[in-house]
Amino acid sequence: MANTDALLVATCKTMIRTILLCLDNATKGTIYKIGLMPELTAVRVLSGYRKPGTDELEWGLPAISEYNPPGKKWEMYRDQPGRPLEAMGWCVERQTSWTADNPAEDPRSVRKQISGVPEDEFHMEPVLIRKKNLYGNSPKIEYPVDWQGKPIWRDSEHVVSAVVKIHFRPGSLSAGDRSTVIVRNLARSLGSELLSLWFREKLYYASKELARQRLQSCEILAHELRNTLVKLGFVFSGINAQIGILRERWERLLREHRPEMEWKEPLLETLSGLLGEGVQQLPFPGELFDLGKKLLAEQKELATLYLPPFQEREWMKNKIYPKWKKLLSATVIWDRGEIESLLSRLESSLSTGMSYDPSSGIDGLPSELLARWSKLAYVQITSGNLLQLDEVIRLVEEPILPVSHKEQMLRVLKSSRAIVQTIQEVEEKASSILQSLRFGNRAEDQYSFAPDVLGLDAEGELGFGLSD
C-alpha cells in the first residue's frame, strides 16, 4: 500500500489491542507495512505499549528507528554479508515467522550483534496475501532479489504485505506455543483487512485518475467547442454583409431622391482634396508625408464602405481623427477651423440615412415599407436579436422592394438563419454536458471519512521511546 492513512492506523491499532488483551504475557506490539515489489519498503505503522500491571495502552512510534517513515528498502534489511542479520529480512524473504525465545542466543538480534546486549523476547509474524490478488497474472512482475541477485517469491503464491512483532515478558515465550499460534491466526485476519484497504486505496486513486481524465476531456471538449462556435460566429458576418447591401441600396435611393441631405461621400471628397493638395507640400520622404498618404487612403476607403454608423464612427475615432490631429499640430498647411468643421459634419452625416422621415413616399413605395427599410438597414444581427433577422427576411421577400438579386440574398439569409438558430441550443446543451463532466461526483467526496466513522478512539499517538 502506498499510504499510511487513518484507516490503516485504525486497523493496526485494533489488531495490536486485540493481541495485547488476549495475551497476558505480551507487553508491546508493533506492525510494519511492507511496500510493493521490488522495493519492499518496510515502514513502522504503529506501536502499542501496555503499561505495567494494567490493561491501559499507549500508542506511538519510537523516537528514533530506521523503520520509522519513510522506512527501509529491501536492499537495506535483507541478509547480506558484512552487516547484522535482521529478523525482518528473515520474515520477508522466507515468508515465515521468527521467534526470539532465547534473546542471549538470538542470531538475528541487531542490538546483540552490534552492542552485545540482548533484546527482550519477541515473535515476528509475516502477514501474507495471495500474489494474484495484488498483481493478477501479470508476467511483468519485477521481483526483489537476495544479495546474490536471485529473485525471491517467484515460486510463492503469496507476498508479504506486513509484519507483526509482539514482545513478551522474560521466560514466557517459546517457539510454537499458544501465544505464537494466536499471533499467526490474527495475522491472517490482518491480511484480509490489509487487502481490503489496498483495494480501497486502488479504487481511490483510480477515481482520482478518472476525475483527472474527466477534467482533461472536459477542457479538450470546451476548447473544440469554442473553436466551433467561433467558426459558426462568422455566419453573423455573412448575414450582416447582406444587410449591408440593403443599407447601400437604401442610401443610394435617398441620395437620388433627397439630394439636399448631407452625405459622407461629398464631405470625404472635399477632405481628400484638401489633404491631397497639402500632402504635396510636406517633406518627402518624411513621417508626415507618409502619415498624410495613409490618411488619404483611409478616407477614400471609408467613402466606399456601407458600414453601420457605429462602426464608421469607430473608424473615424481610430483612423481619421488621430492622423488629422497630428498633421494639424505639426504644420500650418491646412486651415484648422475648416478641417475641424468638415470632420464634425462628416461624423453627423454617418447617420443621415437613419434620420429620414419615411412618411413621404419615394418612387411610389409605401411609407410602411420605407419605415421598415430605414430601420432594418441599420441593424446588426447577433445571437441576442435573432428575431430581427426574421424581419429582415420578410422585408427582402416584399415583391416591390427595389433591391437586385433578392433571390440569392434570401437563400443566404434563410440558410444562415437555420445555422444561427442552432448555435444557442448547441451552446446550452454543450455547456450542460461540460458542467456535468467537470463537476460530477468527485472521488475525494466519496472517500472522505470522519474519525468517528472510522472507529478511532480519543487516544493520542505518544512519542515515547520504545525499542524495536
Q: Largest sheet, described in full? A: 6 strands, antiparallel
Q: What's the β-strand tally?
A: 6
Strand content: 5-15%
Instruction: Give the N-terminus to C-terminus distance in angstroms.
Output: 22 Å
* Integer count of domains: 2
Task: Tell me, briefly, the overall form.
Answer: elongated
Number of helices: 15
Radius of gyration from the alpha-carbon trace, in angstroms: 44 Å
Question: Would you list the SSEs in sequence order as H and E?
Answer: HEEEHHEHEHEHHHHHHHHHH
Uncertain segments: 441-468
Given helix and strand content, the structural type is: alpha+beta
User: What percentage of residues falls in helices of 4 or more residues?
Assistant: 40-55%
Please tell me the overall pLDDT.
83
The main sheet orders its strands as 3-2-1-6-5-4
Write the layout of secondary structure elements.
Layout: H1 6-22, E1 26-34, E2 42-50, E3 57-60, H2 74-77, H3 87-94, E4 98-100, H4 110-115, E5 121-130, H5 131-135, E6 158-168, H6 178-257, H7 264-279, H8 287-304, H9 309-330, H10 336-349, H11 367-376, H12 387-396, H13 406-438, H14 443-446, H15 451-454
Helix pairs in contact: 1-6, 6-13, 7-8, 7-10, 8-9, 9-10, 11-12, 12-13
What is this structure, in a nutshell?
The chain is of the alpha+beta class.
Tell me about this structure.
With 468 residues, the chain is of the alpha+beta class. The chain has two domains: 6-207 and 448-454, GAF domain (Beta-Lactamase, 2-Layer Sandwich), CATH 3.30.450; 226-438, no CATH class. 54% of the residues lie in helices and 10% in strands. It has helices spanning 6-22, 74-77, 87-94, 110-115, 131-135, 178-257, 264-279, 287-304, 309-330, 336-349, 367-376, 387-396, 406-438, 443-446, 451-454, and strands at 26-34, 42-50, 57-60, 98-100, 121-130, 158-168. A six-stranded antiparallel sheet has the order 3-2-1-6-5-4, sandwiched between helices. Helix 8 (287-304) runs antiparallel to helix 9 (309-330). Mean pLDDT is 83; it is low at 441-468.
